[in-house]
Task: structure prediction
Amino acid sequence: MSRRMHAAVAYSPKAPLRIEELTIAEPTGSEILIKTVATGICHTDLLLRDGIFGPSHPVIPGHEGAGVVVAIGPDVKELVVGDHVALSQASCGYCASCRRGHPMNCGNYEQYNLTGLRYNGEPAILDQKINSNFVGQSSFASYILASEGNAAKLPKDFPLEIAAPLGCGMATGAGTVINALKPEVGSTIAIFGAGAVGMAAIMAARVRQCAKIIAIDLHDSRLSLARELGATHTINGRDADVVEQIHELTGGGAEFAVDAVGAIPVVLNAINCTRPGGHVALLGLDGLGKDIPIRLDSIVFNRKIQGVILGDQIPQLFLPQLVALQKSGLFPFERLVKTYPFESINEAIADAESGKVIKPVLVFN
Result:
């Protein structure tokens, strides 16, 4: 069995995505088929579009999907048709990392997220040779063939139009602070980059009751919003003395730092702004494939430098927690979202690349 859908396909780097009508397979095993209500646009989708990361062209991007389950495979245990879900990274559920409660470190990550095929090795698109299932989803489509393992059930009264970014951007920023760094009450933290991921980290730092939350970005408008969302101090990244300012504000260096950019100079600033014993989380992907020139004396004094993928979270547990925080007013991530009709996907991408919009979300009819 199969059904027809519309999907945005990347055919070549930097080129606009093309919306096409395709045939998607029905779910088998532990798969679920989701009618898409909304999907966020993330920087990683643009790396896929440009051939830097992920399956080869032609390919359907998208990995922040949210929608309604319309069909399930025979091995699905907890979800039923009609459930509302948000999707995150896929994982196998049986490797050592998954069984230890760290599915974002799944030992079968590539098989479940980057081959362009379903986890069983079969194509999801039946009538053309187009790669899909990017990060277990390929959500730039009116239907998503995912698996139960990367779906988090959400309350039906929570708007799916704003739920989409939970699975990547919000989980990455918030999970890094809450699950990986775990700052104590009264801690100091510097967050480099006030895009969707950085803003999520800022809000999570407020949830953790950090005493000083320092946001660094190039756009004054974003720094202004960062203050509204929890930053106690802001610094424009064009300043020559960013590290010095952070040391002055914190009395010797921040205890924690988050890099949500990935550019090598920003990574080095994130490391150098911390005090001895500091903990740095690296999230940005702009420096993929590049070396970081770190001096040994920058880390020997008990500094910890850690990469964090997707907030080191368990989607079925963490995404509903973020929903609860949003409902309580502690995690107002909806303020980052601007919605676009799916047909305006290339306009939404252009607005994201220009910095005009923090988190564009595509909404399906």
